[in-house]
Amino acid sequence: MAYTEALAVSYDHPFTVIIGLETHVQLLTESKLFCRCSTTFGEPPNTQTCPVCTGSPGALPVMNAEAFRLSVKTAVALNCRIPEFTKWDRKQYYYPDLPKGYQISQFDLPMSEDGWLEIADPLNPDDVRRIGIIRAHLEEDAGKSMHDEAAGKSDTRIDLNRTGTPLLEIVTQPDLRSAAEAKAYLTELKLLLMYLGVSDCNMQEGSLRVDANVNLHIETDGGKIATPIVEVKNLNSFRAVERALTYEVDRQYHEWCDTGRKLGDPGVSKQTSGWDDAAQRTRLQRSKEESSDYRYFPDPDLVPVVVSPEEVEAVRQALGELPAALRSRLESQYELKAYDADVIVNQGRAVVDYYETLAAASGDPRRASNWLQQDVLRTLNEMSLTIEQFPLTAAGLGELLKLVEQGDLDNTKAKDVFAHMLAHGESAAQAMKSLGIEQVDDSALETLCQELLDANPKTIADVQAGKMQAVGALIGQAKKKNPNVNPADVKRICLELIARM
Amino acid sequence: MTLTELTALELLREMEAGSATAVEVTTAFLDQIERHDQQIGAFLRVDRDAALARAGDVDRRRRAGEKLGPLAGLPVAVKDNICVAGEPTTCASKMLEHYRPPYNATVVEKLLAADAVLLGKTNLDEFAMGGSTENSALGVTRNPWDTTRTPGGSSGGSAACVAASMAPVAIGSDTGGSIRQPAGLCGVTGLKPTYGRISRYGLVAFASSLDQIGPLTRTAADAALMLETLAGHDLHDSTSADAETPSFTQSLDQPLANLRIGVVREHFGEGLDAEVEASVREAVRVYESLGATVVDVSLPHGKYGIAAYYLVGSSEASSNLARYDGAHYGYRTDEQAMRAELDAERKAAVQAGRDPEAIDSPLVRMYRRSRAEGLGDEVKRRIMLGTYALSAGYKDAYYVKALQVRRLIRNDYDAAFQQVDLLAGPVSPTPAFPLGEKTEDPLAMYLVDLYTVGANLSGVAGISVPCGFSSGGLPIGLQLQAPPLAEDRLLRAAHMFQQTTDWHTRRPSL
Hints:
The structure holds two protein chains of two kinds.
Chain A: H1 2-8, E1 15-26, H2 65-77, E2 85-86, E3 89-92, E4 102-105, E5 112-120, E6 128-140, E7 144-148, E8 155-159, E9 166-172, H3 179-196, E10 208-220, E11 223-226, E12 230-235, H4 238-259, E13 271-276, E14 281-286, E15 297-298, E16 305-306, H5 309-317, H6 323-334, H7 338-346, H8 349-362, H9 365-383, H10 394-405, H11 411-424, H12 428-434, H13 442-455, H14 457-464, H15 472-481, H16 487-500
Parallel strand pairs in A: 12-13
Antiparallel strand pairs in A: 1-9, 1-10, 2-16, 3-4, 3-15, 5-6, 6-9, 7-8, 10-11, 10-12, 13-14
Chain B: H1 8-17, H2 22-40, E1 43-46, H3 48-63, E2 75-79, H4 106-113, E3 117-122, H5 156-163, E4 169-174, H6 180-186, E5 189-192, E6 212-217, H7 220-230, H8 248-251, E7 260-264, H9 274-289, E8 293-297, H10 305-320, H11 335-351, H12 362-374, H13 377-390, H14 396-419, E9 422-426, H15 442-446, H16 453-458, E10 461-469, E11 475-482, H17 487-500
């Protein structure tokens, strides 16, 4: 709400933004939804097809049970109800990349419905927004048309490799109130899907595709009016979603100011547009009034799927720890701030595992959190590595942090040791040795401090007069005499010695 | 007796005993086809060389003492809506005239695994839509008993080739009676098994929830042999029945004690030819004489069967046939001519001050013309009917209502089978009708399925066996129906009848 109000400040009429998202998620199966062909991306055209994918006369679909299992897993994690009986329907339309002339999908009895996903309010991260999920249903993907328009040609080539790839379509209620919320929802959804292991969510390869429905509820003197709904299709990055929605909100407001057209007016129907990333604007694709009649009916080639409550319960039990629960556990178990827990969880399960090992090995979960976020994640980013590829094990890094924790190593030196460990693959102890950093034991340090105090009576006097920081002058001298001394220890021992005088 | 007069079981015995080779058997049928098929038109394609090569291979393996399949050396004709890899599978449509599927139907795989010899592909009504095989885009099939008459349909080619001794057995498909009706009109035995008993994988779909593959044979015993070879759950067809396949040939001779036969009251009403009625009633008396009890039963919703069938079947067909759009395979209109035509229309539109873009896009025009030119009238009629029945605003009144009626019809069958073991009645209202008689009147043609569609709508098993002749010398069929998966009972009853009568042994003189 607050975001919308902030946005609407520069407009003459206050309004609420209404957004609903349809997300197509490609499920991580080895084979297609209704045949055994591979789903590998990027193979030469039409090499991953069989009579079922090409819609050859007489071929029949047979459901991939793994795809169904992954979709149940996702739906359960989205708090959906899983009906005991679900069926397949045909959605009829003509298109060259749809070889059967219909798509097998789910219409009136989807495999799940009525769930929700919680996201952090982008303006008040401590507030939670619950976004309703209308349904998630399974369907097969279509093929790909490649238009060759070079040199006046109008050839279209069809690649059916993608045909039959399992897609889970997740449809939200129109609960999102800003582009930022839409992005937050998608970010959280993607994270959830990654934790579940049901999709690789690779947007470049089309594993996650988003359509957004958006309009405005504008408050006018004559009461609240709604602008015509626009569906923005095939948004293939979160940035595109955010920008397209921001653009569309502004466009709809100004169109309303110019034309006064509103939802429900004669001749006003839902419009479809696409996001032009180069021009940073949406473009209308269809404005003609078209009531799509897909002539859905139950696919007689496929038997309905019956799912027992026991099976759903078994899936629920096996879900594992999901992001929301993980965040609150990290906060309570390691006393992390919400922000820090969020950063770690958002990196994925492997980073969380790394963190937990590091926290235990270092003996200081918060120091572990800082090091992970600042040093480890920065390094991963710089070197383009995943945590699995990171050369330092959590246990190995934990040893280093433990030395810092015990006061055997100061932070500055620890960073040097860290860099050396990374560069040479050495343990913390080996790296310290290589760098000539030795631990100075307390008796040697006491001797050193006594010598310095003897040589600096003014410092003693200052401290005795209450100026504790005077000891600072000795630290530099101590480091000159022995580079390995820990400044904190020098300070502590000097103060102790003076106190005993 | 010549080889072509023998049943499948007799031929197999001859070959096993060494008194005939597979090459001799195959040659005999190929020669019969050469002599008579110009007159009958049962086959769309016969590959003599391939059939003989395969028969020769069976003989060689037999001589080598190898274990052979249960149909070793038996020639089989296959309806041309069943896919054979690399061979034309036309569905008797211009649309698929040059189409060669990349894979074998499961039934074809099973025939090959059983060492049968594929003789050729038989004619049918286009995409199996019709009751007379006159809707074939590739030629008419004639009834071997009277070549001025139809063989029935849609498996008219399969029925005619068995009747004319051009094949000992043929494979057909039955969506509303398409095996039983031509079997009845041609005087052969035609079995429509329980829905799902034989895999549909590779059967070019007409109406998926009704389509069923089955054999056309000379005897019930041969039908039992074919069924036990072809039946079984198929991982490629999720609607195929996950039931064990009994040895139908083994149980065939066991007598059916205390058999209760139901005579369907509604099957003896208006429109039934008097000679057909007399023959069927006589057949029922044969069963009585064999100790069966005859019970009067009712299938009250049967009168809605034709309507429900044409709504469900056409709805599914409109969807199943959408793929024939010229984009991926099959017939495509001449693109240059199509472009020229469209350009001319657009030009005319501009001159007339109309929007040229309101006319088709080239893609839509390609779809339109390919379908207009590639599909026949009856197919178009059913696609339009089905498209209408499924469209928004009409679906509940037509498609959904038809599904409800379908359930009532199935309930009727369930209730009837509480009382009786089998139902007996006519296959079709009249003997074979003259070619051309009903082609101008689709509704009259639809009524030939009156007694058979119930089995498809409800999924039960049915068989047609010869039970007499009209005064004009045309065969008359008796239909027996049994509950789902009770084919053993159905085949035993049909066999019992054929042990007592000799209608099934009569052959037309060609």
